Amino acid sequence: MSIEIITTGDGSHSLLNTALNETYHSRHGAVQESLHVFIQEGLDRFLASGATTVAVLEIGFGTGLNALLTAQHTEEKGVTVHYTSLETAPLPEDLWVQLNYTTTPAAQTLFHAIHQAPWNQSVAVRPTFQLQKLTVSLQDATLPTAQTDVIYFDAFAPNKQPEMWTYDMLAKAVQTLRPGGMFVTYCAKGQLKRDLKALGLTVETLPGPPGKKEMVRGVRSV
């Protein structure tokens, strides 16, 4: 696997896929990007309704950063999470163990538990965090209809992985959303917004994380 660890603008690590010349997270700041796009504008916006349980579907497990932040954030709030993540190329342990996303022994234990959880089965990583990591592509996955509250669409960028951003793939993800469910991504391309609108979502163009002007959130009508 042609992957290198790099340090981003906020001091946190990302990974560089040298074959694609594409990073797993923003070079301007991996943690701050994930917090802004997926936690603040996705998870928190959904939980603002008063929900005490949330089902998350992540497209691209990658470094496990989004899963870690979600587990930490919801544990603090007393929210129960069912977290499903798709990933066709899981990282080897000698790589993910070097990532600097944790600053306390408790956080490190949680991060290790998330990565060491068996693939292709549902595991209670914490009493309030049920994790299912699947080694399958979005193209090949069999996904439930109307059972997801928040989609973290975190595939590589459209110019690097265009097959992930087609109308058909977006439709496959969106059909998993319950009414009121949210689709969030760092991408803000016009074609993406047009496709999400065509799929029936109310689309918002929001301020992006540091270093990126915009991001997108789509909400399924209640």
Automatic annotation (TrEMBL):
Q: SUPFAM superfamilies, from UniProt?
A: S-adenosyl-L-methionine-dependent methyltransferases
Which is an annotated GO molecular function term of this record?
tRNA (5-methylaminomethyl-2-thiouridylate)(34)-methyltransferase activity
Top-rank lineage group of the source organism: Bacteria
Q: What positions does the domain MnmC-like methyltransferase occupy?
A: 119-220
Chain coiled-coil ranges: none
Q: What Pfam families does UniProt report for this protein, alphabetically? A: Methyltransf_30
Quote the protein name from its UniProt record: tRNA (5-methylaminomethyl-2-thiouridine)(34)-methyltransferase MnmD
